[in-house]
Description:
The protein contains twelve helices and 18 strands. The strands form four sheets. The chain has a seven-stranded mixed sheet. Strands 8-2-1-12-18 form a five-stranded parallel sheet. The longest helix is centred in the last third of the chain and has 25 residues, at 332-356.
Amino acid sequence: MSSDVLIVGGGIAGLTLALSLHQAGLSCRVFEAAPAFKPLGVGVNLLPHAMRELTELRLLEALSAVGVATREIVFCNRFGQTITTEPRGRFAGYDWPQLSIHRADLHAVLLAAVHARLGEGAVVVGKRFVQAEQNADRVTAHFDDGTSVHGAALIGADGIHSAVRRQLHPHEGPPSYQGINMWRGVTRAKPFLTGASMIIGGWLEVGKMVVYPIRNAIDAQGHQLINWVAEIQSPRNVQQDWNLAGKLEDFLPTFNGWRFDWLDVVALMQQAEQILEYPMVDRDPLPFWTQARITLMGDAAHPMYPRGSNGAGQAILDARVLAACLRETNDITTALQSYQAKRLQAAYDVVLANRTSGPDSLLRTVHERTGDQPFGRIEEVMSAAEIEAIGEKYKRIAGFEREQLRQRASFL
Ligand SMILES: Cc1cc2nc3c(=O)[nH]c(=O)nc-3n(C[C@H](O)[C@H](O)[C@H](O)COP(=O)(O)OP(=O)(O)OC[C@H]3O[C@@H](n4cnc5c(N)ncnc54)[C@H](O)[C@@H]3O)c2cc1C
């Protein structure tokens, strides 16, 4: 079966690619290192550009049943004062929603669809890729259990520690830590504000928080599962492990005063069911992803700071564009070059924007202009036009400006 596309990694990118290739009428198999999929991680956000692709994969209903359609983002300072409220998804006139969802729920929906559409054998677990070799006719993937498999193309969708990337760029070194550490948690709590609000507040020197619900009505009392992320500037550079347990005492003191009449952040943290610690890391842009029959996608290609809700979204866009390029021509190397030409710069523009000028950079401006003090009227600190310009610029860079998205032809 050397006409198969071999996908290394059964995460969000790999599974979306499998579904997209199937939609394009192309065969593939996914090779995942983990011996079994476990419900890992916490919340992710899918913006309308990603939701459009998932809708075109006929997954809107299944995803909407488990996630929360985000209604608005409230940007605030650490005193709980609202800087601006921005409607999101359909509430902002988009044709697609913004969905806040547990990563495990997103993964489960994708995996169930792969099993139903491609068959149970399409995803092989317990296969850790170690190396590939290629010639003019095929590519061969070798796994750590001593087995090998041949295919027409090999796609590295193996995440931030990608072994495929390491083979293409052996001298790159580890992801770069720039001094911001994160603690992520989930807590069962009563809905706050609209029940579908996302909060982004504070700023790094004094603590920054992101809070949003990811599961509705999880019990008879109407509790939601609330996802939160605490970010602090810190020299701690812990290992990058999605399952590293975090300790409350390491970050709670920074958020001591965060008890607003509309949300008790301190209680939310104290009552967490699970806390994970992860450093904010990304990688510098690469000159290329494609080498003949091999290419990279998702976090393997462009890990980014989780600042503009684009990590999963950009991986999904990669999958759709890559499947379209592979459908367009039988010449694999041409298809993979064309994919790189369409996606590399676009994805790196998001990586670089997330470092300095992501949508939450308005928090930095407010923090600096107020000297970290409560403000009287926000208009005296930042004009509405200035605030809007930051958000709109990021939407254009990341590919989810409303009219641009509505008018763009389908990738596949
Ligand atoms: C367990 C886990 C939990 C996560 N939790 C969150 C979260 O809570 N919030 C968030 O924003 N992001 C989270 N992420 C990251 C998020 O999924 C990605 O940033 C984004 O969705 C891009 O997905 P990806 O498929 O490129 O990478 P990933 O989702 O990281 O998937 C990569 C996949 O490749 C597999 N893999 C790795 N090495 C090999 C190998 N050598 N051979 C074969 N397979 C390999 C991994 O096991 C994994 O399944 C998590 C990732 C993982 C793996």
